[in-house]
Amino acid sequence: MAVQTYDYLLRDKHGKDYRDLAVYRAAGGYKAVLKAHQMGGEAIINEVKAASIRGRGGAGFPAGVKWGFVPKDTNKPKYLVVNADEGEPGTFKDNYFLSHDPHRLIEGCIITSMALDIHTAYIYVRGEFKRQIETVDKAIADAHKAGILGKNVLGTGYQLEVYTHSGAGAYICGEETALLESLEGKPGQPRLKPPFPAVVGAFGCPTLVNNVETIASVPVVIEHGGEWFHKLGVERDGGSRLIGISGHVKKPGLYEIGVGANMREVIYELAGGILEDRPLKAVIPGGSSCAVMTPEQIDAPMTLDGIRDAGSSFGTGGIIVMAEGTCMVKALQRLSHFYAHESCGQCTPCREGTGWMARIIDDIEAGRARQEDLDTLLEVADQIGGNTICALGDAASIPVQSFLQKFRAEFQAHIDHGGCPIEGPMPRGTRP
Amino acid sequence: MAQAFSPQADAEIEAILQRYPNRLAALIPTLWVAQREFGWLAEETMELVATRLDLPPAKVISTATFYTMFHKKPVGRYHVQVCKNISCYLRGSDEVTAAVKQKLGVAPGQTTADGNFTLEEVECLAACGRAPVVQVNADYHEWQTAESVVALLDRLAAGDTSGGV
Ligand SMILES: Cc1cc2nc3c(=O)[nH]c(=O)nc-3n(C[C@H](O)[C@H](O)[C@H](O)COP(=O)(O)O)c2cc1C
Ligand code: FES
Fold first, then answer.
1. What is the number of structural domains in chain B?
2. Fewest CB within 10 angstroms: A25, A233, A356, A395, which?
3. Given CB atoms, is A166 within the 8 Å cutoff of chain B?
């Protein structure tokens, strides 16, 4: 069975420059704003609930439900904050909207704001995305000039300002409360929850935080209807979404699939299978903090529940593929150094534990480790998980725990061998 | 001479302040303006930002030092950042880094003697589907190999920035 792909969100094959406002509008762009305005807030929220969109930022919280948590009656201002901090290794989907379809995101911001009576939206973009910020800023300016943003959105009388806000190099700022701290000008250290941002968010006010792709899907939902969008996916996990495949596949890149597509087929059909037709060794299915899977686990539907039942998590939909010939210790080393580098330092188990894990893995790879280090490594991972303010601690532990669970023999072989026993190079990929 | 913002930068900071309900929120955008104006964030520059935004210098320093993209020392004209994270690693980023090291004769974190190039290894740049990825200043260079990155450095050393820096 061929995997069904879509081009509702991923429009890169259209041969059109959607950054150009005229091109965007000619394809029906910004019409959903007028439709939404006629529907009114309650009806927009119901449509998003009917669409059953689970947040695309990694945690998969139902978007409509989260929107419902934003208080209606409040005399405080409310904010929309779009999470464009995309930094989870293996994840590169939000980059597409920011680079190539910025008006989709702006249109999503307008409809979302109308639904919740919000008049200021910030798009928090990771600092490395300088060109993407220029692209979005230009789209905002063009929309302003055309009367799509500002005091009177498309003649509806609705007022909305949208601003980009550049991060400055800190993965932790993708965590929503760290992001809010950063937006407020402070170091990006996560806050204790509750209170949740929907109630006490930016500047002490009710704030909706959603991922770029979540918000960019909203115009499609309003244009075609929530039920329609829902049916592209499965029950309680609706819609189409972007999947990014990287690593040892023949055709790495982005694909738009219906939620529920089979992961093995996505890897072997859409992405063309494994480089050099080597056997598959391992897959990380949803960005680097998801548990690593072995080939016999990957015959699973790509839904939040489906990947969970198969032993990992859907995360951000960034699938990292590793072929036979990859050293699993070296692969884990990259991830563990990343988490050690990105720990914000606020919680002791995470600050100390992530560095400790990275050092032990260095020792294993270099052939310096002793037998008991393997147990220490697992103990440290187990002590971080669940003992920190935010989920970065878990994100750092899960790779260690799962790599050791699935590939313990390979770690053992490094110790027995006094270094890396993997012979030969990894497969070589070229630009497809 | 003491540092001062150019009139253009000053107007930009004024516009930034309008976007937020308080001055502290303008800090990171203003630090970006300052870094663009002065190249890096010397203590003097951070004090200038504190004065301009009427914030305690300690607040400015604690924020500026938290974020890796704010330079605490000067960087070269071309800031060559090779992604070393997993997807790039799987597609050969170590060879790219090795080629840059050999070509420039510097280790990650160092700047060439002529002040032209700073090499750094960085974490995931969110372009993993086109790995290996190298960012030079604002621009991404995707699908890199040892050969292509050397050609890129040659082009930049010759002052040709037509294909992006
Ligand atoms: C360490 C860490 C990093 C995160 N990074 C991102 C990110 O880069 N982008 C993102 O949208 N969500 C990220 N999240 C998830 C956010 O906290 C939040 O759940 C999300 O932005 C909500 O949007 P959604 O409901 O639309 O998915 C991260 C979470 C953690 C714990
Ligand atoms: S791992 Fe290099 S860009 Fe993501």
1. 2
2. A25
3. yes
